[in-house]
Amino acid sequence: MGLMRTQQCPVCGGTEREPAHAMSKSGVQYLQRAADRLGVSVGDLIERAQVFKCVTCRSYFCDPWLSPEFASWLFCAATPDHIVGWEEFEFWVRNRKGRFELHNQRVYAAVTRRTGPLRSYAEFGCPFQGFLLPLKAHEADPEARIRLFARALRRAPDVRWTRFTRLYNALEGFLRGALVLALRIRAILDRIIDRRRADASPEQISSRPESLYLLTHDTTRAWSSNCTRYGASCKYFARTILDAHVIPMDEARGQGLTFDLVGVFNILDHTTFPSEVLRTLLDVSRHVLVVSHDARRAGKQHMFALGDDFAEWLRESITGVCVEDLRDEVDVGGASDYSYLLLTKTSVIARPLTDDQRRMEASGIGPGRRTP
After folding, report:
1. Using alpha carbons only, what angle is made at residue 74 by residues 68 and 77, rounded to the nearest 5 degrees?
2. In whole angstroms, what is the distance from residue 87 CA to residue 3 CA?
3. pLDDT score, position 362
4. How many Cβ atoms from other residues are within 10 Å of residue 67's Cβ?
5. What pTM does this model have?
C-alpha cells in the first residue's frame, strides 16, 4: 500500500504524454496524513507525484499517485470528511457567506438563461458545493436553518438498540443541545455585530425546481458514502435538510429517471472513470454542468485535473453533445480558479420542450422515460 505508477491517462485512457508544470502544492490537510503514513515529508510526497499532460485529452495527471488501497484508506479513515464541502454547509447553517455563493449565483443565472426554468435538478457526488444549498435558502430563513439542523441532529431511540447504544445516544444528545445553543447565541451576535445583514447573507436563487436529487457514486478517490460530520453523512443532511432524494447514479439510470440539469461541482476530479461518469449523466439529463478546479489550483490529493482544452476534447469524443465554456460569463473577477462547462444534448437544442410538453411530462402523460 503506497504510491503506484499511472500507466494511462485517468481521464481518457491515452498513453501518450509529456511532462507539465501544473497542479499546485495545496491540499496539505489531506496529503500530510498520506505522507505520515508513508514516512516521508509532505513536500517530498508532492515532489514524487510528478505531473504529466495527456496528449489526447490535454488533461493533467500525477505519476505516481496513491494506490487504490491507499487512496481508500486516506478518504475513508484518515480524512473522512470533505473539508470544503462541510465548510460550505456550516456557513449556510450560520447564514454566512461561503466561498462559492457569488460564483454559484452567476453560474445559476448563466445556465438557466440557456436551459429555461428547471423543473428537475440533480447534484452529483457532493451536496454542499452547488445549487442545493442556495435553493433551500430560498425557503429557509436563518432561524429556520438552525431549526432544521437541530431537528436533523436528533435521533429518537430505536427499539432494536442495545442498552449501550441507548446510553451513547443519550450522552450525545447533551452535546447536540450545547451545539445548537452555541449556534443560536452566535446568530444573535452576528445580528448585533453585522447591522447590514443583507451584505453578510448570500443572495437567494429565486426559482426552485419541483424535484431535487443527489446522485451518489462510490470510488476510492473520494469520501463517497463515508463523508461524515456531526455523527451523520452529507447524504443524510442532503435528505433531511435540503429535501434531496438520494439515489445512486447507476440506479437512477436503471430506473429511467431523467433531469433537466445535473450539477457536477468540484467532484469529477475525484472519480475513477470521469469520462464514463459524464456519459452516464448525459444518459439521465438534458444538460450537465461541470465545475472543476483550474489545473493550476488543483492540489495533488487529486489524481488528475482538467486542462483548458478539455472542452474541445469533449466535443470531439462525445457525439451528440454541445459543450459551452461559461468562464468568461461567470468569472467576472478574472481569478480563473475554476472552469465552467455546460454540456447539452444536441437533440435538446434542436427540439426543446414546449411548456405544454413539460406539463404533460410532469403529470406522467407525455411519452419518454420516467422523470422525477
Report:
1. 115
2. 29
3. 46
4. 15
5. 0.89
